[in-house]
Specification:
40% of the residues are buried. The longest helix has 25 residues. The radius of gyration is 16 Å and the shape is globular. The chain is built from 7 helices and no strands. The chain has 152 residues and is mainly α.
Length: 152
């Protein structure tokens, strides 16, 4: 069942990358269902994150935020800081698009802080660190635009 769960997640990612969001949603919902049935919290985190990303792409910002908050809660409980940082970044963008600027700023700032912490502690290849730096930079850039658009 674990392989089937992973397969649904991977198929969902493939459809998402092709902008076939209805198929992506269908597969990620199956991914989440199997993850819940197996009580696989890591798979649930990934499924919630994917569902949030897809709903964001479909401009269903409130739904995106709901899924991302669920994924964030599990990522925090499991201590999966990289997943937490990525979800916070995406949640910040969804909240921003939904007009919730203050909470958006908080999420983007926390995401940037986590990316910095992970990069400092990482004992891995420079490509990985560069990838984290890119995400951290994107968080700061979104935060900067969000803050300046919030100023009266």
């Amino acid at each position: 069942m674990s392989a089937q769960c992973r397969a649904y997640g991977n198929l969902g990612l493939s459809y998402e990358s092709q902008a076939n969001f209805q198929q992506a949603l269908s597969h990620q919902e199956q991914h989440l269902s199997l993850a819940a049935e197996m009580n696989d919290r890591v798979a649930k985190t990934l499924a919630y994150s994917s569902l949030g990303r897809i709903h964001h792409a479909l401009e269903n910002y409130e739904q995106a935020a709901q899924y991302l908050r669920q994924g964030l809660q599990i990522a925090e409980q499991l201590g999966r800081r990289e997943d937490e940082a990525k979800i916070r970044h995406r949640l910040g963008l969804a909240l921003w698009a939904n007009g919730q600027l203050e909470e958006s700023q908080q999420q983007l700032y926390k995401a940037a802080e986590l990316f910095e912490l992970i990069r400092r502690e990482a004992h891995v290849c420079s490509d990985y660190k560069l990838s984290l730096f890119d995400l951290q930079t994107a968080s700061y850039q979104a935060l900067q635009v969000c803050v300046t658009s919030h100023v009266p």
